[in-house]
Amino acid sequence: MTTPVQQLKSELESTQIFRSSSAYMHNLPRDKSDTLLLLGACVMVLLPHFLHLSWWTSAICSGLLLWRAAITMRGQRLPPMWLLLPLAVLSMGGVYLDFRTLLGRDAGVAMLVLLLTFKLLEMRARRDLFVVLLLSFFLLLTTFFYSQSLPSLLWMIATLVLILTTQLSFQYTGKQPPLKQRLRLGGMILAMALPLTLILFLLFPRIQGPLWGLPGDAHGGRTGLSDSMAPGNISQLAMSDDIAFRVRFLDPQPAPAKLYWRGVVLTHFDGRTWTPGVTSRATTNDEAVATPNAATSVRQQITMEPNGQRWLFALETPQAPPALEGISTRITPEHQIRAARVIGERIRYDVVSNLAPAVSERIDPGDLQQALALPQNYNPRTREFAASLRAKAADDRALVDAVLHFFRNENFSYTLEPPLLGRDSVDDFLFSSRAGFCEHYSSSFVFLMRAAGIPARVVTGYQGGETNPVDNMMTVRQSDAHAWAEVWLPPHGWVRVDPTAAVAPSRIETQLSNVLPHSFFGGLLGPTLGKSNWWSALTNAASIARANWEALGNGWNQWVLNYTPARQQDFLRWLGLGEFDWRSLTILMLAIGAVAAGTVTLPLLLARNKANPLDTVYSALCAQMARRGIPRHKHEGPRTYEHRLCASDSPLSPTAKLAVQRFMSLYETLRYGADFSADDGKDTIPPAPLMAKLKLLLSQCR
């Protein structure tokens, strides 16, 4: 058992060790402290890339950084080239095996990351230092290939300040200012570049599309709905808080039950997976949408995140394809909005939807055949059940109502963790497990409809959304992913039926989080935690903070990331420069940029050339002595010059020699004394009384 005396002794020893470590770090030699600062800057550059690099690349980079830090702290020699070169070649070979190329975004960034860490072990000259710094600048820029969010920008600004501070630290030849002062100077250098950066951002001719859209990179790192649906697909998305798109309503916002964001229509079923069918015809204007009116038309401005797919989302039913810069769009016969190419960047578009159902009295024979097709020898019990319902139902509408009544009144449950289903997945769901997510209900419902002779299909998209009270933008997340069904009921045409609403109607009226049971920390704290006052206050504060942060991020997306060529032209028209072509715009940009650069650098140049009053007085003494025939030699300092002025063969009078001695003594104190020297090495202006005394002594040196 530890006694109080022993515990106190242990605490004192720990405190002593901490103080010794702090003193050791503070008293490190300058070359070691500068190298560790460089390693810290490189770590900040590399950390964002560890999120997308392969595990072995991250492991090698971490090992090399630790190796370099150990060499620095122990004062050891750098490893020889015969050891580094084979390791570097093997690492590049690993990159090629990973990507089957050394070109492209991901392979190129992986190579740069490895080159930077290997170069840290090969710094034998001053130019190697600048190579590392330039590589750090370039590699920091590649972070935008993967993320352009506001947190990424803030991290990059902090990293830039540290890189500039590191570069400044290696530039000092004399006394080095404290780290805090160097960081402040690095921040000032970055701040001085902001005016020119703003001008380049606003006036530099914009290029449509991302510069990093290299072949093979379009689908990397994208999450969201796919072009197929199988049990478990959408329930996996329900756990994701990522944003799918944001919406600004230009008309009154519809009720939650009408917020069906149409995505992909799935008509082909192989027994387990639903996929899109083959479109056999083109959309005609008379059947695209119902006759619009003010009560059913809703205008939306949608900012969609990149998803690596070709479809765009809108409320049912879009009236016309939206206009996108550089991307053609169309509306398919199934009322989907399709783009001509994969959406690999954030886009914004305006679309008008008609909330009234699209009415059509005819269906194409090819579409009818696809909407009735079922795989052979699958789900026999469901087929028998559909036949019994068909025999009892008076018409198709009655049969649909019977199936919804079956879902509503039997012991079905809505869950994110349904049991696994076998080969006859619909049979297992309807008659055994009776627990599932929206894809289970929509899939089984459509199978039942087809087995009963009613054309049906699955529609995937999103349902609902959360309005941000800060900017009144609706946020639709991946957790809002949903699947529903459509059945063909003449003379109405395709009619939406959501079987999930029969089991969990609150899923359509509110958010998914209000429907599923809550579990905190794996259930360790229990479901009653959410009812406590302090937990409610904490969650409310977190919700407010998230709303403000997302509103800030949305502003960043709208005004910075979505500054497209069209928006640049609108901005120039607002400035009265709408008629400028790109040549005139380039000249204007260079002219304004030169003015901005001059405004920043001219005061610095004037302050740099401004003479220190102390040096002015000393120069006056030297000039005065030169007129007496005793000029100061270029190699002479104040003390050596004083000895020559006061020598026995000097033409100065004893009074003048005494004044010279006092002048030089005071000048040395003011110029080189510890009480008047600045930590940053800058010239300081002595107090006025001392300057007056120095000028009085100068007058006595005649």
Structural commentary:
By secondary structure, the protein is of the alpha+beta class. 50% of the residues lie in helices and 11% in strands.
Indicate the topology:
Blueprint lengths: L3 H23 L3 H17 L8 H20 L6 H19 L5 H15 L6 H16 L8 H20 L9 H14 L1 H10 L29 H5 L5 E7 L10 E7 L1 E2 L4 E2 L9 H4 L8 E8 L6 E2 L1 E2 L13 E3 L5 E3 L7 E8 L10 H8 L7 H13 L3 H14 L3 E2 L10 H9 L1 E2 L1 H14 L4 E8 L2 E2 L6 E4 L3 E9 L3 E5 L1 H5 L2 H4 L23 H29 L3 H10 L7 H28 L3 H15 L10 H8 L8 H19 L15 H12 L3
Parallel strand pairs: 11-12
Antiparallel strand pairs: 1-5, 1-15, 2-7, 2-13, 3-4, 5-10, 6-9, 8-9, 13-16, 14-15, 16-17
Helix pairs in contact: 2-3, 2-6, 2-7, 3-5, 4-5, 5-6, 6-7, 7-8, 9-21, 13-16, 15-16, 22-25, 23-24, 24-25
- Output mean pLDDT: 79
Strand fraction band? 5-15%
Shape: elongated
> How many β-strand stretches?
17
The oligomeric state is single chain
Derived from helix and strand composition plus strand pairing, the structural class reads alpha+beta
Biggest sheet strand order reads: 10-5-1-15-14
* Main beta-sheet annotation: 5 strands, antiparallel
- Taking all Cα atoms into account, the compactness measure Rg is 37 Å
Primary descriptors:
702 residues, alpha+beta, 5-stranded antiparallel sheet, 50% helix
Please give a quick description of this structure:
The protein is 50% helix and 11% strand. It has 25 helices and 17 strands.
